[in-house]
Specification:
The protein is 15% helix and 32% strand. It contains 4 helices and 14 strands. The radius of gyration is 17 Å and the shape is globular. It starts with a helix and ends with a strand.
């Protein structure tokens, strides 16, 4: 993606945000098509719940100023978008491009937002504790707030036993040991249900070393706050 395109995108999106309130600008900075999806946890349901973005395309998603939800990118999607739709990574199980009220099926790179009006404090995080797909950068419009970046392609670093493979045999996603095995030692449950006993593993060490700002396990407190009413860029690539 060219620097000029990114700057032009940011300029237009800031103008849009100030005119229309809270906006989440979703950008495809990669070379392949992605299908971002939206799940509303709290607040008025945000639509659309499924979007197609080719390389260098963006979508300005309008959200209520009080809203909690998840935004993620699906990849490797095929089929009729109204009746037989399926994605290799991040599928939501509706068999449609619209995810409606369904959450992502791991692995998926999940951006979680908890937005409040001006005067409060919004929070945001990149959640990879169940797995990951594409890389991501989350940038608040408010320049004093922390940018969250996981820009490296981690798929090749995923342990083979946790990897999701394309039909061509290429690694395209990574499941966490917790999601894959459901074992307490990986999920930090049972006798391991404390920060002191929730040990790192090959997966969490990968994230801690290469993407330290993302959530990697149940006791990872890697979330950030920003002034209420701000909008966000989400760049998937």
């Amino acid at each position: 993606m060219s620097l000029g395109f990114i700057c032009f995108t940011i300029f237009l999106s800031i103008l849009f945000a100030y005119a229309s309130g809270a906006t989440v600008t979703i950008i495809n900075g990669g070379d392949e098509t992605i299908w971002p999806a939206v799940y509303t946890e709290k607040g008025d349901t945000v639509n659309p719940t499924g979007i197609k973005l080719d390389s260098d395309q963006q979508y300005d998603l309008t959200v209520p100023d009080s809203w909690s939800g998840t935004i993620w990118a699906r990849t490797g999607c095929t089929g009729d978008p109204n009746s037989d739709f399926h994605c290799e990574v991040g599928d939501c199980g509706t068999k449609k491009m619209e995810c409606l009220e369904s959450k992502p099926q791991p692995p998926a790179t999940q951006v979680k937002l908890n937005l409040v009006p001006k005067g409060g404090s919004s929070s945001y995080e990149v959640d990879m504790k169940d797995g990951f797909g594409v890389s991501v950068t989350v940038t608040p419009f408010e320049t004093s707030c922390q940018k969250v970046m996981c820009i490296q392609n981690l798929d090749d670093d995923c342990p083979n036993w946790l990897a999701v493979y394309s039909s061509e045999g290429r690694k395209i996603g990574c499941k966490s040991p917790c999601f894959f095995t459901k074992e307490p030692k990986y999920c930090c449950t049972g006798e391991f249900a404390s920060p002191q006993k929730c040990d790192n593993n090959q997966y969490t060490e990968l994230l801690d070393n290469k993407c330290p700002d993302v959530v990697s396990n149940a006791f990872d407190g890697s979330h950030f706050t920003c002034s209420g009413g701000t909008s966000f860029f989400i760049l998937f690539n």
